[in-house]
Amino acid sequence: MAKLILSMDGLVLKEITLTKERTTIGRKPHNDIQIDNLAVSGEHAVIVTILQDSFLEDLGSTNGTVVNGQPIKKHFLQNNDIIELGKYKLKYVNEAPAAQAKAADFEKTMVLRPGAMKPVPGPSQAASASVPSAAAPESGGAKSFGDTLVGGGSAPGASQKPSPAQSAAALQLLSGPNAGKELELTKPLTTLGKPGVQVAVITRRPQGYFITHVEGASFPVVNGKALDAQAHSLSDHDVIELAGVKMEFFLKA
Amino acid sequence: MDLSGVLEIASCTDAGMVRSHNEDSIASDQERGLVVLADGMGGYNAGEVASGMATTVLVTEIQQSLRQKQPFDIDEQSGLPFAQTLLREQIAKANTSIYQAAQSQPQYAGMGTTLVVALFYDNRLTVAHIGDSRLYRLRGDDFRQITKDHSLLQEQIDSGMITQQQARLSQNKNLVTRALGIDPVVEAEIHDYETLPDDVYLLCSDGLCDMVSDEDIGMTLQTLSANLRLCAQQLVQMANDNGGRDNISVILVRVRKGYSAPRGPLSRLFGWFK
C-alpha cells in the first residue's frame, strides 16, 4: 500500500499510509494530514487513491503545490515523487508489487463487477464522487469487488524499454551496387533483402543479435552455411549472403 | 463459403517467463473464418478450464450453426447480419456453461475468462470481446487497436482522469470490468468492420500488450507480415524478452483477397463450381 513520508529540512516527521479514498492535506485541523505552517493553505491539496493508484490535486491553494520541482494542478503520483508544500516535503512511496513479493502472487487479474463499483470520477467531479476505497484483494469480497481472483495479470512492462543487446552492431555490405555501405542495427527488427524474392530479419534481443529467414525459396547463408527456418545467433564478423549480396555483421565497440 | 484460400492464420501461445502454466486458450477455423482467444482467470487450474471451455464451446457451437445459416443472412427481426446474433447467442451460452461449472464445482469457484472472437465473412468481420483481450488491425501503415478494453484503466482514460501515457504507469492494470463466466449474464461488445485485401488482424491477450508497446507490435507486423508464423513467434519472443510476466497469446489473420459472399441462387450456384 502506498504511503507518504512527511519531512522538513531532511528530518522525517511522520509516515502516513494512504488507506482512505481521499486524504486531505492542509493547515486546518480537520485535514487528514495537518501541516501547521502559514505557507500551507487551510485546505491545500487532496490525494485521491483508487486501489493501487494515487492522484494528487491542488485545491486552489495560495502558494500552490509542487511535485518534483514542477507546480501542478493535478498529478498522477509515481513512486518516489516529492511533493513540496512550503518548507515541508512529502515523499510518495508506492513500490511496484513485484518488488514486495513474488510477482505471480500479486498480479492476479481481478474482475470488478459492473454496477457494483461506482463510476470512475471525472476530473471535475473527482472531489465529490465516492469510489470504494482501496482494499486488498482478500478483503474485497464485500461490495466493491467480485470475490473472484483471476489469473492473467499484468506488469508495468510496456513502459520499460526492452533492454538492448550489450553492444551496438552494424552490417557492412561487401558486394553489390552499395558495397562498402554500412547499415546500423538500431531497431529491434531490421529486414534485409528483396520483398517477394528473399527476405531475412535481424532481431536485436537482450541475448544478442539473431538472423531469421522470412520469405523466399532460398535461405540466407551465414559463413558459407545455409540456415534453416530457425533463428541463428550472429557473432562478430559473420558473413551473411542474401539475395546475391554479401555483408558482414560486426559488433561496435 | 470456404475461406481457406482467403485467410491466412497463424498463432502462438506461451506461458511466459514467470507463470508455471498457461491459462490462455486459442482456437481457429480457417474454413469458416473464425478465430477465438480467451485469457482465463481463477485459482489453480480454473483459469485454464474457463478459457478452454470458452474456446471449445464457441468453436463447436458456431461451426454447428453455420451449417444451417450463412453469417451474412439478415436476421428479419433485428435487421442485423446473422453473424452478430450468432456471436451474441453463443457467447451467452459459453457464459452460462462456465458460470454453472463455477457454481457447481468448488475448485472452479470464481473462474472466468476474457474473450475476443472474430468471424470473417463477406468482406467484413464481426468482432465480439469481453475484458482486456484485444483486436488490432494493420492496414497499410496504419496500425490501431480496434477493441476497447473493459477495464478500470480504460474507464479512467475515458473519463479523462488519466492519459494513455499515464495509463502505462498505472498499477491498476489487472482489473477488468467484464469477464465471461463470472456473472449469470454478460454482455459482449459486438461490432462489424469492413475488411480490405492485405489487412492483417492481431488478436492478443494482455500478456502481449502489457509487455510490448503498440509501436513495437505495429512495427513487427509491418516488417514480418510476409511470414505470419514467424511474426507470431517474434511477438511472443518480444514479450518474453521484456519480462514475460503473464501468459502470451497471439493470433494473426491476413486477408489475402476479397471474399464477397455469393448471394442469390445464380451466384450461389456459381460459387459451388468455383
> Hey, roughly how much beta strand do the residues of chain B contain?
25-35%
Strand-residue fraction of chain A?
35-45%
Q: Summarize the biggest pleated sheet of chain A.
A: 6 strands, antiparallel
Q: Whole-Å distance between the termini of chain B?
A: 11 Å
Biggest sheet character of chain B = 5 strands, antiparallel
- Helical run tally of chain B: 8
What overall form of chain A do the CA principal axes indicate?
Answer: elongated
Helical fraction of chain A equals: under 10%
Helix percent band of chain B: 25-40%
**Spans of at least 5 consecutive residues with low confidence of chain B:** none
Give the helices and strands, then pairings.
The complex is a heterodimer of chains A (253) and B (274).
Chain A: E1 3-8, E2 11-17, E3 22-26, E4 33-34, E5 45-50, E6 53-58, E7 65-67, E8 70-72, E9 74-76, E10 81-85, E11 88-93, H1 97-100, H2 103-106, E12 109-111, E13 149-150, E14 169-173, E15 182-184, E16 189-194, E17 198-205, E18 208-216, E19 221-222, E20 225-226, E21 232-233, E22 238-242, E23 245-251
Parallel strand pairs in A: 3-4
Antiparallel strand pairs in A: 1-2, 1-11, 3-5, 5-6, 6-9, 7-8, 7-10, 10-11, 12-13, 14-15, 14-23, 16-17, 17-18, 18-21, 19-20, 19-22, 22-23
Chain B: E1 7-14, E2 24-29, E3 34-41, H1 46-68, H2 82-104, E4 112-121, E5 124-130, E6 134-139, E7 142-145, H3 152-158, H4 164-167, E8 175-176, E9 189-194, E10 200-204, H5 206-209, H6 214-224, H7 228-241, E11 248-255, H8 264-273
Antiparallel strand pairs in B: 1-11, 2-3, 3-4, 4-5, 5-9, 6-7, 6-10, 10-11
